[in-house]
Amino acid sequence: MSTKLGQLGEERAARYLQHRGYTILERNIRLGRGELDIVAKRDDLIVFVEVKAHQSREASLLAMHPDKCSRLQSAAETWLGRHVNHAHCQCRFDLIILTPRVGLPAWLPPRIEHMEDIIR
After folding, report:
1. pTM for the complete prediction?
2. Is 44 within 8 Å of 89 (Cβ atoms)?
3. CB burial class (10 A; 0-12, 13-18, 19+) of residue 68?
4. Residue extents of the structural domains in the chain
5. Which of 34, 85, 90, 91 is the Cys-Cys partner for 71 at CB 3.0 to 4.6 Å?
6. How many CA atoms lie within 13 A of 63 on its CB side?
7. 17-33, pLDDT tens digit by residue?
8. CA atoms within 13 A on the CB side of 33
9. Averaged over 89-93, what is the pLDDT?
């Protein structure tokens, strides 16, 4: 995935979340072994959102291998350690997949799939 495609995907994912009542706290944060694409909040819930913008849904799902999940958890723990004002909040890991609409005009936005609580 190109950097430009990734940035565009993250922007669309952030707008999607905002339209659903989430507040975006931070984006593209490198912490230790991992990176957090989006950190969002709704009520007393902190959501660490991984954004995947591959050519197929399957490719995006395959990119969420155990090592990737471990790195996300490590980055989230570091983020929480630096933001003690959110210590009382529940946390969740979500995945947003953006895939192009095959056979439709290129100007149509990609399909967005929001999967909640992907790491337990």
Report:
1. 0.90
2. yes
3. middle
4. 3-115
5. 34
6. 16
7. 999 999 999 999 999 78
8. 10
9. 96
Query: What is the spatial distance between Cα 120 and Cα 92, in angstroms, rounded to a whole number?
Result: 8
pLDDT beyond 80 at 6: no
The H-or-E segment that residue 53 falls in is none
Q: What's the alpha-carbon Rg for the chain, to the nearest Å?
A: 14
* 60: its two tokens: 């995006």
Q: What is the pLDDT of residues 46-89, one digit of tens each?
A: 999 999 988 889 999 999 999 999 999 999 999 999 999 998 89
Give the chain's length: 120
Residue 94 near residue 120, CB atoms below 8 Å: no
Up-side HSE of residue 111: CA atoms within 13 Å toward CB?
13
| CATH no. for 3-115 | 3.40.1350.10
Of the pLDDT bands very low, low, confident and very high (cuts 50, 70, 90), residue 3 is confident
Cβ(98)–Cβ(112) below 8 Å: yes
Cα distance between residue 71 and residue 36, in whole Å = 9
Token code pair at residue 119: 């790491």
